[in-house]
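note to self: the first set is below, dont mix up w the second
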Amino acid sequence: MRNGEDGDARDGTRWIVLVVRVPAEPSRHRVAVWRELRKTGALSLGQGVWAVPDVPLFADGIGRVLELTERAGGEAVSLAATGRGSQDGQRLRAMFTAARSADWSEFLADCGKFESELAKEIRIAKFTLAELEEEEQSLERLRRWHRDLTARDVFGAPEAAAAGERLKLCVAACEDYAERVFAALHQVPEQRASDEGNGR
């Protein structure tokens, strides 16, 4: 099993395990630490125990968690860890990837909401610059989210490829909506009056 274990160590199964304790009150400190852990992509292993792969990507997030914990008057211990055997590393990797799969599923659901929103605006012919700006902001949020999830998904969850394709569809849908908005805004007044008269 030596070769398998060495391979696991090389491909990212070294872990940072955080043991975090934050005073119960005021609750805002616990919430801030929890949010940072979630934002970082840390895997919850139990009450106050979290793990991330030991790669540079997670260093800043871990630093913020430690800083927030100290500021709240709490205690945090970070440990470098590996599984005692290859099965332990594989189990941790599977749990971490399952968490990323849940993130991707949430992302895909939001892509669906974005596409539905665009379809509704087209259906009711709401072609305004204000609405376009709002939709472009929503698309940029999806892009940032996709970048963050891609960075955290160090082992490659199976949903990642579908999410990338879905984001491309969202971009294309937003571009189509933008073209409709600009076409409506540049319509000559006579044509616009004619369309309104015909109930378009």
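second set (the one i keep forgetting abt)
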Amino acid sequence: MKVNHTLPLEYRTEENSNKILGFWIFLGAEIALFATLFAVYLTLWQRAGNGPTAAEIFEMKPVLIETFLLLTSSFTIGLAIHSMRLGLKKPTLVFYLITLLLGAGFLGVEIFEFFTYVHEGATLQTSAFLSSLFILLGTHGAHVTLGLMWGIAIMIQIKRWGFTEQTANKSFIFSLYWHFLDVVWIFIFSFVYLKGLM
């Protein structure tokens, strides 16, 4: 296996470069998935029927908390990858842990938000608007949940084996995934919440 020591650890082998390229292609499919969910939501967002409208159920405070938590986690995962490239194991694990705690906080606020909606009579079956909303937010939330489990698995591997071409590659790919979730959230914040509150 040919190793190029001039490249960052996660890119040093051809296999690792191919895995990163493959993950970019996978993210292309994820973009198509979320684009479809956004298209459905934007088609149905005013079809509230007898149920509550976006302006009636959306509250800015929890959304701002979610946005702060997720965008901060994007910064901390960047710091984790930077620490990894410097060969600093403990800071990498600390920044990973902070990232995952921020992600868990985001998820907690989102779950609380869902319970609030249901308490106000806004359920998946209430209207076309609400079904499209729950599916869009739920799909993003499911991705964050998967990310939390994936991040824990990578932390365990780094703690056990340190920085190898494999653990570095997995860490970098995870960071791409996490940044992608943040970008999707920015679109949700802009085209779901801000649009709904205007």
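remember for set 2: The helical segments are 14-44, 54-57, 60-85, 89-119, 128-161, 165-197.
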